[in-house]
Amino acid sequence: MSLSIARSLAFAAALAGAGFFAIRADAEQNNVTFPVIEDLTHYTTVERRITVEHMLTTPEALAAIKAGTQVPTGTHIVLQDFQSGVLTRYLIAQKLGDGAANWQYQWFWPDGTIKADERTDQCYSCHRSWENQQFMFTHDGAVSFDG
Ligand code: HEC
Question: The pTM is what?
């Protein structure tokens, strides 16, 4: 292979690489918004070793979950992730339409910016195993919250 062909191949690969990252970053923008955390209710906590996760959602969503009805469109469910007492990220699920499966997911840093390279389709795939309980792993915690 001549040197010039090798160079153009390397150039093409670099362009393809740049395009790939641009597409990935765009792909991870979605419609999930960052909520006003102070307006949400802390309904349960999950702890394992240095990890403490506070789960929060709206009072209206908690009432719907207890009643066994769909949470209102727009509802945020937030996982506030603390590592050794330091807030490290927010994992956020948001109900974006009427259908029971109409949830989207996003990872936000503590400053409210998103983690642009996160594969949010993987959030959805894992959470959909609980499609019959509002896509929530901590559904029982929300049902039993009496606070
Ligand atoms: C492989 C499975 C899996 C993936 C992938 C996953 N989660 Fe979860 N998620 C869980 C489990 C299990 C819990 C319950 C808390 C725990 O055990 O830490 C949870 C809890 C949550 C909660 C609190 C509400 C609930 O369902 O209990 C939110 C919000 C959440 N995850 C958002 C996200 C976001 C955003 C992503 C992607 C960036 C994501 N999750 C990826 C398994 C997953």
Answer: 0.85
- CA gyration radius, the chain: 20
Encoding tokens for residue 22?
């641009």
Q: pLDDT (tens digit, 9 = 90+) per residue, 1-46?
A: 555 555 554 444 444 444 444 434 444 678 999 999 999 999 999 9
- Sheet-wide strand order for 41-48: 41-48, 51-57, 76-83, 86-95, 103-108
**Cβ atoms of residues 120 and 90 within 8 Å:** no
User: Which residue's CA is minimally distant from atom 24 of ligand 1?
Assistant: 136
Ligand 1 geometric centre to CA of 147 (Å): 23
Kindly list the distances between the CA atom of residue 133 and the CA atoms of 69, 100, 119, in Å, as whole numbers in the listed order: 10, 9, 23
- Which protein residue's CA is at the shortest distance from atom 22 of ligand 1? 79
- What are the pLDDT digits (tens) for 95-121? 999 888 999 999 999 999 999 898 999
Beta bridge partners of 42: 56
Is the beta carbon of 107 within 6 A of some atom in ligand 1? Answer: yes
Measured in Å, residue 58 CA sits from the centre of ligand 1 at: 17
